[in-house]
Write a structure and sequence with these properties.
The complex is a heterodimer of chains A (about 850) and B (about 240).
Chain A: H1 19-29, H2 38-67, H3 69-73, E1 77-82, H4 88-97, E2 99-112, E3 118-126, E4 137-138, H5 144-147, E5 152-155, H6 157-163, E6 170-173, E7 176-186, E8 200-204, H7 205-211, E9 220-227, H8 236-249, E10 256-259, H9 265-303, H10 305-313, H11 318-345, H12 347-355, H13 369-392, H14 416-435, H15 440-470, H16 477-487, H17 493-528, E11 532-537, H18 542-552, E12 557-571, E13 574-575, H19 586-589, E14 593-597, E15 605-610, E16 622-626, H20 627-632, E17 640-645, E18 648-660, E19 671-673, H21 675-678, E20 684-690, H22 697-710, E21 715-718, H23 719-772, H24 777-814, H25 823-850, H26 854-857
Parallel strand pairs in A: 3-8, 5-7, 14-19, 16-18
Antiparallel strand pairs in A: 1-9, 1-10, 2-3, 2-6, 2-9, 4-7, 5-8, 6-7, 11-20, 11-21, 12-13, 12-14, 12-17, 12-20, 15-18, 16-19, 17-18
Helix pairs in contact in A: 1-11, 2-9, 2-11, 2-13, 2-23, 9-13, 9-15, 9-17, 9-23, 11-13, 13-14, 14-15, 15-16, 15-17, 15-24, 16-24, 17-23, 17-24, 17-25, 23-25, 24-25
Chain B: E1 4-17, E2 20-33, E3 37-41, H1 48-55, E4 63-68, E5 71-72, H2 78-88, E6 89-92, H3 104-114, H4 120-130, H5 146-158, E7 164-168, H6 176-193, E8 196-200, H7 204-208, E9 212-217, E10 220-226
Parallel strand pairs in B: 3-8, 3-9, 6-7, 7-8
Antiparallel strand pairs in B: 1-2, 1-4, 4-5, 9-10
Helix pairs in contact in B: 3-4, 3-5, 4-5, 5-6
Chain lengths: ~850, ~240
Amino acid sequence: MTVVLEPHTRLMPSRRAGLKTILKLGIRELRGGLKGFRIFIACLALGVMVIAAVGALADALRAGLASQGETILGGDMTFARMHVRATPEERALFSNLGRVSETSTMRTMARRLDASDQALAELKAVDDAYPLSGETTVEDGKSFREAIEGNGAVVDPMLLERLGLKIGDRFRIGQTEIEVRGVLKAEPDAVADRLTYGPRIFVSLATLDKTALVKPGTLIRWRYAVKLPPDAPSDRESLANLRKSVEQKLPTAGFTSVDRYDPSPQITRTLERLRQFLILIGLASLLVGGVGIASAVATFIDKRVKVVATLRSLGASGMQIVGIFLVQIILMSAIGIAIGLALGVVVPPLVENFYGDLLPVHAGIQVSPGSLGIAALYGLLVALIFALWPLGRVENVRAAVLFRDSINAVSGRPRTSIIVATAALTALLFAVAVATSEPHNIAVYIAISLVVMLAVFGWLGGAIARLVKRVPRPSTPELALALRNIAAPDGLTRSVILSLGTGLSLLVAVALANAALVADLNERLPEQAPDYFLLDIAPDEFDAVKAKIVRDVPGTTLIDAPMLRGRLVSLKGTPVEGAKVPADVQWVLNGDRGLSYADAIPDGSTLTAGSWWPKDYQGPPLVSFEGEIAKKLGLGLGDSVTVNVLGRNVEAKIANLREVNWENLAINFIMVFSPNTLSAAPHNVLATLRLPPGTTRSVETAMVRDLGRTYPSITAIRVRDAIDQFNKIVAKVMVAVQVAGSVTLAAGALVLAGALATGQRRRILEAVILKTIGARRRQILKAHAFEYALLAVIAAVVAIALGSLIAWVAVTQVMEIDFVFSVNAVLETLTIAALMIMAFGGIGTWAVLRAPAVPYLRSE
Amino acid sequence: MNEPIIQLDNVHLTLTSKAGPVHILRGVSLDVPAGQPAAIVGPSGSGKTSLLMVMAGLERASRGTVTIAGRELTRLSEDDLAVLRGAEMGIIFQSFHLVPTMTALENVALPMELAGEADAYKNARELLKEVGLAARTEHYPAELSGGEQQRVAIARALVREPRIIFADEPTGNLDGRTGRQIIDLLFGLRQRRNATLVIVTHDDHLAGMADRIIRMSDGSVASDESTRASAVRAVSP
């Protein structure tokens, strides 16, 4: 048989291996194991873990809020209003829906009978039906209902401590004496009653009446919880429709309603903001980890140069080789992402276990595909963005490497399509980050900061190496060795500076932002802030109150303003429910705001547009609006706003805009009306009280105690206590931010460990050579110490500068408070840098000094 | 004959492995007089490189004594060994083992720098000129050819004027022509300094240039003969 050969077919372009073959080759290449990918996987897993954990925690809390919503509200839905109790008609409307429970909450002063002491307290008066859901429990198993009968009260143990009371003792609220009958153990609907400044006191509505505290204008919040009949539809939509129907029937009543599916929109919003912010910090740590990913891929490719050259010599195309290694990168990314997601999901129960009392609701494991999806997407995008460039350069490896070792076998740029793909993925990552963050500018700031950081430290590493090369040779041989290592063309300088620098910069930024916030609250405010807020002063009593206080403590200044609570119901004729406003001013439309009126510009305000109304103005209602907020709400001069005050809608035109200095805590309001608009409404007066410098605490306490005895309805809030209370909440939030921030540093540490591990073999070989030519271990140790110390100091100094810049932008542009440079934060950073480099470098050097010489010296 | 500068007495080297102890050297005894060029030859795995490593104090003998320039190595600490190597020995490897982050000049100056000696760079420059690399002083090892790297390694080994030169397959990674150039250079430099040379090699031509050939087999000295008809001394057990 004759075989006819067709010689020309062998010269034709061969059909390239398909995806399946590339996949097979890629997986086969992985037989070498995961060793070279440990840092890659760890960097990815860490970042994905933070993002997944934050998402899972937010999901768990949201699910907790929804599942415990009925208990939190004490019913299926609630309707709440300031100042005015529901009318019989309104009550009837609620009763038509189901069983109703009426409660009221207000701040007041609880006093010892001998008037020797008093304390700010949160008074809650409840009816017989309370609570419709859940249970209010009392210590020692006493009956809550029996305890609040007559003039009885169930109180928070804190009140007993502050006033030195015990069960059976009596104390005074307003004009009545109340007996402590039980100590509060659990209050089911505490979250629904908002932030509290003092210990809770439970009494019956009948007891509240006896206090005589409730007068027109008193700052009291009435809340009506409704429990639907068991057979009534109670899905999310039905409840929303029911609420809407009540609002339509009571269009001007001014009730704020919520239902059990979102029992606290305020907490939901706060959680959402915190979630977005923490996810961005998680993304930052993922991006820092990206540096480790890039160097891991570069090292991996370096080690595979001979394999690549062999594949080249066998006819593989550049894209085929890229494909083979891309398969491996994607598989490794999948492993890293899976580990990150698995770890992230178990964080909520851990947080619940250790910090359960800080959470508003119980948090269990909650796996939401959305949150995990976002974490996985971020992980994959970051892995690809950082892996594609070093991976793409694999195409530049030539088969000639097999015949002659070359220092830069893997160098140059990847092909254009890979550069374009990297740019497209970066843009996608940026778009996802910005789109899923509110307000968007935070994501933009963080993205720009990261790009600047990576660019600065990427450049700095090379610049240091070039600069050190020019430094005259020092006479100390160890220092000379260190400098040579720093200046070496493919030494550790670049990767160490990049990893340490980015991690430390973020740490400095978080620490300084935290310091600025704490300083703003602790140090600067009290200098300008008043000492007390006095609530619920009857207008006709103010002059007498002022005279008494000035008599008691001469030099005290009091500034007063009429104060009502009201709710914005429409902007330029559009109901606020449908208004699209930026997230950072949503709170203005959410619930009651303090309203006032004045015939002159309030202290602490400056007019920025329009003009103030004349004294004795009697025309159509006018309002002065805070300029910044008006702008964000889309309001300008001449626009109309409607507020609901005391169950009545009031429409007013914006006559002017003001800039308000909120930080000094002087009396100021977003909306200040012309007097003719509100002066007829029953209201009380709010006053700030500033004591003369040098007033002792005992004089201050005596003055407030005496004021309470003479005017029992006035509530005095010590500003320092309120700030402390607020600081505690801020501190809890900052713990979360710092934890997320330290994860960024942990990512930096991983990258640093990876960078040092990459160079470890070379370092050992170098140490062995040094030993063979006469170097003692102390000399090698000194040389390493000089090198690491120099790099750490340079990275830390630049990180402090860059981190401060980032913090300055965040503090002044995003948080809009004054920047404060904290030496402590900087010292902390330097210490951490020193510890990190000592730990990682020390471990590495120890291994270097212990390594036996022979295996390294024998021919490879 | 000169006094021995290298003395090995019943030297054993046993390493442990998962499969059990591996006997690398089995009772080697030999003396090398100062100034003698000697070659160690033998098949792969016969223990010749290990013998060189033990002589250089890079590997510690499991049993027996190794005395170099009058100092017994087993009594010395790691650092004392390093100092002794720096002062008395120059070592040349098959894979050159230059410090990759240093230029040729820096590599050569390094032993003098570590010893705190003056004129390190002046001497290094002169030595590089002597090995024919005056034009390559500022190049990094990766920028040099194999032959050039080995010349740098030779210069580095000789910069402190050691009395003993150890060379482990110095031409193993080089082509024949370059290898011969390196050998001529090495022997020439040795002769000018009257240094002792112990060279491990597979190359019979190279071994023939030494005064003495020590043949290793299975961890022992199989034969030890002079190539110039001087005294033949069998010292194997």
